[in-house]
Amino acid sequence: MELRPILSAMRRNKVGAILIGVQMAITLAILCNALFIIEQRLALSHRPTGMDESNNFVVTNQWVGNPTDLKAKLQGDLAALRSLPGVIDATALNSYPLSNGGSTEGLLLTPDQKEPTALSALYEMDEHGLQAAGLTLVAGRNFTAEEVRDKFGYLDVTPPAAVIITRTLAEKLFPGRSALGQSVYFGGHTQPAAVVGIVERLQVPWTQAGGWGSQFNDNSTIEPMRYVSPYTHYLVRVQPGRIAAVMRAAEQALIALDRARVLEKTWTLTEARADAYQDDRGLAVILGVVCAALAAVTAFGIVGLTSYWVAQRRRQIGIRRALGATRPAIIRYFQTENLLIAAAGAALGIALTLLLNLWMVSAFEMPRLPPGYVLIGAIVVLLLGQLAVLWPALKAASVPPALATRAA
Q: What is the distance between the alpha carbons of residues 282 and 22, in angstroms, rounded to a whole number?
């Protein structure tokens, strides 16, 4: 098919062609970046915590008043929880992954170091912690009972003699060498803490810590502490399939042991995940609806303008039909015309897509858009244009030659 008649017709309808091209360019830019944001958000919400999430639940306990025997109460609660049928183990925590609340500390390699080598989330666990959480120990050992000491609330900042860290944190602190047996220092203290174990993964409590693409997500340190506080989280791990029954039994057992408490929240880590990432899921849904609406508006815009062109060119179509042009030829004419406009719009859209992504990278610390997104987005926009123009093209091809000539 010769392009000269098509280009000539487009010059006579340049405003409409420009509108369609710009609309498709804007659609491409928004679609690519919005879909990339959706993919990033969903990927963040599926990051593993390193724990046995499907079999873990947390009971948040708050004592009424100011009890003086908190240590005895804590030991009694843990003994009661560990004795429940179906319980594998239980421990007391200062925080847990997906809770969006906890403590951080800068880790040093020498006591006189000015800036920390890495920033880490701090978890307080006793010797039952690894088993209660279902963490995977990949090197070293667990804490011994002798290494565990009582920590009385957040104000107790005495550093531990030993720590367990994540594999990610170990690689940051001691790149290219084993972290086992190495010493780390907590800011403001000269007492070293020996690294006695390394776990595969343990997510920090904050789901949005560090922004897009943050490497802080698995920077966790476990201290051998029995967390004694009026406000404590009990982490319980159960046998598969028994979590609902054990959760009810745990609440009943704790209340029966001492009623001077408030069980603020009892939920599974699966429920904690759903709550922690509900904003990300909501954003993904909103952006998905916006993308669908934008694609629909673009498609209807193409249909409307092409239908208007068909009505304007009934004489031209009729003459071509009378001279022997077949219906497929008429359809190809409008498909080719739209493809040229869409190609120009896609080229402009690729530039807009990259510019928009560069702005979001600098403004929101987002990762750069992979080239595959731009390529797939351009193909989608081109296909959208071809599908949108199909109905007006079929309508044009169905006009009888004689009727079109008379209508002119």
A: 29
- 330: tokens are 């008429």
- Comparing CA positions, the residue from 139, 163, 159 lying closest to residue 223 is 163
Chain-wide mean pLDDT for the chain? 86
pLDDT at 212 over 50: no
Q: What's the rounded Cα separation, in Å, for the pair 48 and 44? A: 9
Question: Is 124 in contact with 93 (CB distance < 8 Å)?
Answer: yes
Q: Tell me which DSSP letter residue 240 carries.
A: T
For residue 269, give the nearest of 98, 123, 78, 61 by alpha carbon: 98
Q: Is 400 helix (H, G, I), strand (E, B) or coil?
A: coil
- Cβ atoms of 132 and 187 within 8 Å: the answer is no
Q: Is the pLDDT of residue 306 over 80?
A: no
Beta 118-125 vs 149-152: how paired, if at all?
unpaired
Work out the angle at residue 264's Cα, subtended by the Cα atoms of residues 253 and 92, and round it to the nearest 5 degrees: 65
DSSP of 43-61: HHHT---SS-GGGEEEEEE
Per DSSP, what are the bridge partners of residue 107? Answer: 118, 186
Q: Which residue has the tokens 């001691």?
A: 174
Tens digits of residue pLDDT in 50-82? 999 999 999 999 999 888 889 999 999 999 999
> Using one digit for the tens of pLDDT, what is the confidence trace for 235-266?
999 999 999 999 999 999 999 999 999 999 99
CA distance 133 to 236: 7
Run of H or E including 358: helix 327-364
* Strands, sheet with 261-268, edge to edge from the N-terminal-most edge strand: 87-93, 231-238, 56-63, 261-268
**Residue closest to 104 by CA, chosen among 157, 31, 174:** 157
Distance CA 68, CA 79 (A): 19
Bridge pairing between strands 193-199 and 162-166: parallel
